[in-house]
Amino acid sequence: MQKRRCVVSLEVPEETGEQSWMTRELYPTDNSELGYTKSSIRPFGNSYAELVRDIEHMRQDCELDVLDLRSKVSRLVPWNS
């Protein structure tokens, strides 16, 4: 991975025990591990056009692999909806 992008993540938080889907930012790290935001992210824009563009970029990125956080080792996996 060479640049930051959005990724759909899948996890099962201990407090709820229920499967949870979120959008996070995925970014490169120096040690080749997966870097990602701890909290979910949301689209943002300083104008309507910027917000729509951000939503579109997120939608395109979400068609890529899913960040699976259900085990101790996070990994990108193909997802067939």
Q: How would you sum up this structure, described in words?
A:
This protein has 81 residues and is α+β, with helices and mostly antiparallel strands. It has one domain. The protein is built from 1 helix and 5 strands; from the N terminus they run βββαββ. It has a 5-stranded mixed β-sheet with strand order 3-2-1-4-5, covered by helices on one side. It is globular and about 40 Å long. The mean pLDDT is 90.
Structural class: alpha+beta
What is the helix/strand order?
Answer: EEEHEE
Strand content: 25-35%
Average of the residue pLDDT scores:
90
Q: Enumerate how many helices there are, as a single number.
A: 1
Major β-sheet, in short? 5 strands, mixed
CA-atom Rg in angstroms: 13 Å
Distance between the termini: 23 Å
Helix content: 10-25%
How many discrete structural domains? 1
How many distinct beta strands?
5
Give the overall shape, derived from the CA principal axes. globular
pLDDT < 50 stretches: none
Q: Walk across the major sheet and give the strand order.
A: 3-2-1-4-5
Secondary-structure map:
Blueprint: E1 5-11, E2 20-27, E3 35-36, H1 48-61, E4 66-68, E5 75-77
Parallel strand pairs: 1-4
Antiparallel strand pairs: 1-2, 2-3, 4-5
Provide the descriptors you would attach to this structure in a database record.
alpha+beta, five-stranded mixed beta sheet, 1 helix, 5 strands, globular
